[in-house]
Amino acid sequence: PSRGTVTCYILYFFQGCNGGWKEDLKDLLRGMVDFSMFLELHFLLMSLATILLFIWFIVPYFYITDFMKVYNMTEDQGSLIISVIGITNTIGMIGLGWAGDQPWMNVTKTYAVCLVACGLSIIGMPLLIGNYYLLMLTSGLFGIFFASNFSFTPTILVELIPLERFTTAYGLVLLCQGIGNLLGPPLAGWIFDYTQDWDMSFYMAGVWIIVSGIMVAFIPYTKNKRIWGDGMLERDRESSIA
């Protein structure tokens, strides 16, 4: 068909929709920029914990090899440590994913414990870096416990937010992850430039990831509420509609 015919078809389609497509587009855009869930206490705690985690988890991935060179270890040894983290991370995702589906598992509490353990494993890296095999052990533990983020986050979100709002909620969590990934590497590098010592970067990474675990631990022990405004919670809105 000619260009004019195609144009007529397009105009006919949009006119036939009686403007409904505009409303659908507005609803789509409104959902993409809907930050109202940040006004709920539990979702805000989860989001802040995610930002802290993704700011600091990157420290071992980016800088463990440079740290090991200070102790006269080779790049091959550093590469093996990174491989151990990757392998144990994969194993952790499978194992924790299976455990998260079991009825006896409280996913939120377990996630909080895993984050605290993840932070402790990072703190252990500068303490054990003089012994290559102990460093490999604590790196493997880091890989396993960090995997809890990938295994448990979707399940926790489903508990906090109605299923039909899951896509928006998970998108906001990914936004928080992106913010953390953007801030983490330069921040850790700046700490090294300021102190000329990798220990402080690893200690701070561990401490702040422990803080993120503590924030998640508040979720099952507190009542969810809106921290600003008088609107209904997402869960309550779903119940009222039903």
From TrEMBL:
Its main location: membrane. InterPro entries: MFS, MFS_dom, MFS_trans_sf, Proton-linked_MCT. It comes from the Eukaryota. Signal peptide: none annotated. One of its GO terms (cellular component) is membrane. It is found in: Membrane. It is a multi-pass membrane protein. Residues 35-242 form the Major facilitator superfamily (MFS) profile domain. Keywords: Membrane, Transmembrane, Transmembrane helix. The chain crosses the membrane at residues 38-59, 79-99, 111-134, 140-161, 168-188, 200-222. GO terms for molecular function: monocarboxylic acid transmembrane transporter activity. Pfam families: MFS_1. Coiled coil: none annotated. This is Major facilitator superfamily (MFS) profile domain-containing protein. It comes from Homalodisca liturata.
